Amino acid sequence: FLTAKATPKIYTSRIVGSVRCVQETVPEVGAKTLSEVIIKSPQVMELLLEENKIQDNGAGYIGDILKKYPFLGLLHLGSNGIGDEGIKKLCVGLKDCQSLLRLHLPNNTFTAIGVTELCNNIPNSHVNPQFQLLNVSGNKIGDDGANALKGLIAKKYASFKVLYANECNITDVGGLA
């Protein structure tokens, strides 16, 4: 059921409409090309790009997908070296995204600045009432980041059920947020 597309390491599934680019297939430069292809492919509902060295500039191209592509339900950008600037670029598209259900950003390099940007730009429940999951584990967001996540939870998404924030340098003080 999996067929190779573009290179032997990029796979699409006809069943679930997902694209998975395995380790280091889509570095920062390739993210632009991938975004152009995805925007023209209405069957894609999942974009799995963990461990591809997308970094900050590549995150901007993924933000373009979120801005222009109305069908994406799952985005996984774990372990891509995305820092605070990359999160800002990703959020340009995220703020108006009406379809995203699950956003995975574990093990990148953003801090409380980046997670605050995320929390301020995840569409509120009026724009995207179906948002369910955010994973920021492995990023050094600290207590200030925990406070930003508290603000996200306060938006009262009826469907928001899962928040992963493991190994984020949150102390007991931040844990009380």
Please give a quick description of this structure:
Helices cover 36% and strands 17% of the residues. With 177 residues, the chain is of the alpha/beta class.
Describe the structure.
The chain has 177 residues and is of the alpha/beta class. 36% of the residues lie in helices and 17% in strands. It has 6 helices and 8 strands. It has helices spanning 28-39, 55-68, 84-94, 112-121, 142-154, 172-175; strands at residues 2-5, 7-13, 18-21, 46-48, 74-76, 102-104, 133-135, 162-164. The radius of gyration is 16 Å and the shape is globular. The N and C termini lie far apart (45 Å). Residues 1-16 have low confidence and may be disordered.
Question: What is the topological layout?
Answer:
Elements: E1 2-5, E2 7-13, E3 18-21, H1 28-39, E4 46-48, H2 55-68, E5 74-76, H3 84-94, E6 102-104, H4 112-121, E7 133-135, H5 142-154, E8 162-164, H6 172-175
Parallel strand pairs: 3-4, 4-5, 5-6, 6-7, 7-8
Antiparallel strand pairs: 1-2, 2-3
Helix pairs in contact: 1-2, 2-3, 3-4, 4-5
